[in-house]
Amino acid sequence: MATQMREYILGVASELFSSRGINATSVDTIVAEAGVAKVTLYKYFKSKEQLILAYLRQYDEKLWLKLAERSTRTDARPTEKISELVNAVLDWIADPEFKGFAFMKAVVEFPQLENPVHQSSLEFAQTLRNTLAQIAHEAGIKNAESLALQLSMVIEGAAITENMQRGSGAVRHAKDMAKILVESAK
Hints:
Elements: H1 2-20, H2 27-34, H3 38-44, H4 48-70, H5 78-94, H6 102-109, H7 116-138, H8 144-164, H9 170-185
Helix pairs in contact: 1-2, 1-4, 4-5, 4-7, 5-7, 5-8, 5-9, 6-7, 7-8, 8-9
């Protein structure tokens, strides 16, 4: 029961953070929407910051599960794996349910470098870049880190553009750019 209540509060908070913004969502709003007492929220999350960090961790886990579902070919060559991963992320960005990357929103709302929310957000971005670099290394690409950074920039730019202006064509153009980057890096 305790785990269910924690997950319920986290789910309500996640939806609010995603749709309204983290700083724009007060603890009072979360408890009102969840229909729980403030003491109940603080029983499971000692502070709003802990709730935010749990939200970012959960978002990160769900994202990687979603990407794993979309890029499951084990027989693909490493260069194909790069393209599959990038396309999986971009396809998700094109999904009408996509509300932007939580880590990108959080890093903007918490710009102080030493802030744990900012640090957690940077970790996700670095995980994506490291994953792309690892696959690029496996493909024998000499400048794997450069390619990973370039592809991350394409993905993040597409996410921002598509989130700001649905149907902008950002995802289609990002896929074209990513293909050119991967092919020129071989």
